[in-house]
């Protein structure tokens, strides 16, 4: 039986999924709960990692190494960087980077780690499925680079700095972990996020207001993707 893993960072990002599957078992590993549901010949495993790149790396690793995930999908919210992204819009990551990695002191580019790369691409098959879902449901889907770092960005200067240095369209705190881990372990992955704020001076207030509605948008988009993945 094949397994699809769906990861969020915060409880709010997976609540809509648990409400949908209703019937699931729970396993605990490393301080996280993993919710296991059966869905039409597939196993669906859902977890939230807790905030930040390290937590997300642990959860993604556990999904692959302990639960044998065949696909990894991240669902959640993000701060919009490009001006054409409004609250509630859905973004598909074409690639991800860690904007807070800096060993430029040794002449390396920003975001670069030796034996790795600044940007890690998401999986084409999963991205094509996302585009198909968007088309079927008439949802405008924007794609672009998503930048991750261990900061909630709520400041114009920092936002501008990330745009200029990484050409990213959205910012969050976990996606690059999913990319690094899944890529190294050869598991297809994608990152879907719905915009909760614009990473500007109002970001904290917007985030509190739109976290759950945007999380629901992302989760229901991912559920439509699951229905297509199980037909691959
Ligand atoms: C923010 C969440 C973290 O998992 C990353 C949301 C949305 N807007 C962002 C922004 N900058 C960076 N990331 C994001 N997620 C955690 S802080 C709030 C915690 O409150 C994406 C994201 N502008 C918890 C209650 O006290």
Residue runs with pLDDT of under 50 for 5 or more positions = none
Main structural class:
alpha/beta
| Elements, N to C (H/E) | EHEEEHEEEHEHEHEH
What characterizes the major β-sheet?
5 strands, mixed, barrel
Please tell me what the overall shape is. Answer: globular
| Number of beta-strand segments | 10
**Second CATH tier, the architecture:** 3-Layer(aba) Sandwich
Task: Write the CATH fold name.
Answer: Rossmann fold
Count of alpha/pi helices? 6
What's the number of domains?
1
Spell out the CATH superfamily. Answer: Nucleoside phosphorylase domain
CATH class: Alpha Beta
Bound molecules: ligand 3QA
Residue share in helices? 25-40%
Would you summarize the structure shown here?
With 232 residues, this protein is α/β, with parallel strands linked by helices. It has helices at 11-21, 53-65, 124-137, 156-166, 175-184, 203-229, and strands spanning 2-8, 25-29, 32-39, 42-48, 71-80, 90-98, 120-121, 141-148, 170-172, 189-197.
Structure, explained:
This protein has 232 residues and is α/β, with parallel strands linked by helices. It has one domain: Nucleoside phosphorylase domain (Rossmann fold, 3-Layer(aba) Sandwich), CATH 3.40.50.1580. It has six helices and ten strands. The longest helix is centred in the last third of the chain and has 27 residues. The radius of gyration is 17 Å and the shape is globular. 44% of the residues are buried. The mean pLDDT is 98. The site of ligand 3QA has 18 residues, from strand 5, strand 9, strand 10 and helix 6.
């Amino acid at each position: 039986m094949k397994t699809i893993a769906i990861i969020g960072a915060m409880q709010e990002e997976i609540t809509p999924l648990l409400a949908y599957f209703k019937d699931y078992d729970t396993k605990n590993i490393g301080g996280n709960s993993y919710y296991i549901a059966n869905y039409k010949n597939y196993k669906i495993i859902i977890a939230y990692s807790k905030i930040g790149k390290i937590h997300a790396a642990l959860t993604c690793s556990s999904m692959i190494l302990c639960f044998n995930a065949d696909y990894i999908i991240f669902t959640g919210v993000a701060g919009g960087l490009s001006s054409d992204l409004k609250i509630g819009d859905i973004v598909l990551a074409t690639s991800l980077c860690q904007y807070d990695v800096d060993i430029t002191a040794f002449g390396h580019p920003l975001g670069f780690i030796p034996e790795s790369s600044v940007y890690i691409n998401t999986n084409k098959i999963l991205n094509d499925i996302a585009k198909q879902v968007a088309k079927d449901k008439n949802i405008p889907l924007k794609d672009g680079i998503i930048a991750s770092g261990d900061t909630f960005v709520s400041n114009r200067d920092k936002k501008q700095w990330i745009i200029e240095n990484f050409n990213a369209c959205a910012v969050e705190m976990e996606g690059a972990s999913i990319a690094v881990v899944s890529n190294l372990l050869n598991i297809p992955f994608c990152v879907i996020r719905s915009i909760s704020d614009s990473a500007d001076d109002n970001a904290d207030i917007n985030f509190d207001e739109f976290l759950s509605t945007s999380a629901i948008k992302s989760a229901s988009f991912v559920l439509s993707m699951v229905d297509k993945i199980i037909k691959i």
